[in-house]
Amino acid sequence: MLLNSNQIQQIIPHRPPFLLIDKVIELEPGHSATAIKNVTANDDFFKGHFPQEHIMPGVLIVEALAQTGAVTILSMDENKGKIAYFAGIDNCKFRQKVIPGDTLKLEATVINRKGTIGMAECVATVEGKVVCKAVLKFAVER
Predict the structure, then answer these.
(1) Residues 106 and 34: beta-carbon distance below 8 Å
(2) Fewer CB within 10 Å, N or C, the chain?
């Protein structure tokens, strides 16, 4: 399944400049999703992080992973129109910088879900190299 930014915005509430995924290239609702973020020097966050050496903030890489996970959960029929809230993070590791020109591949796989609470194993890569790994927790509004 392929979703463009307009279709993504029909699933999650994020909007530019805080929408951090450009397209979804794979989606298995409730199970997994793979998204792409094309990192450009025009991204607003580079104005201040850092002016002398543009580096995508780690917290925004995690947010992009969380948005990918949100697409996974909120694309399920029973969750359409709801919001998935960020509820926690475990085992987060950053392995290399993300800079303008990079294509960030974001993968989220749900590993546990009970009712409205769940966890997803998430990995961000650039050219096949891991830049960030984390287990993200979420809560879907009732």
Answers:
(1) yes
(2) C
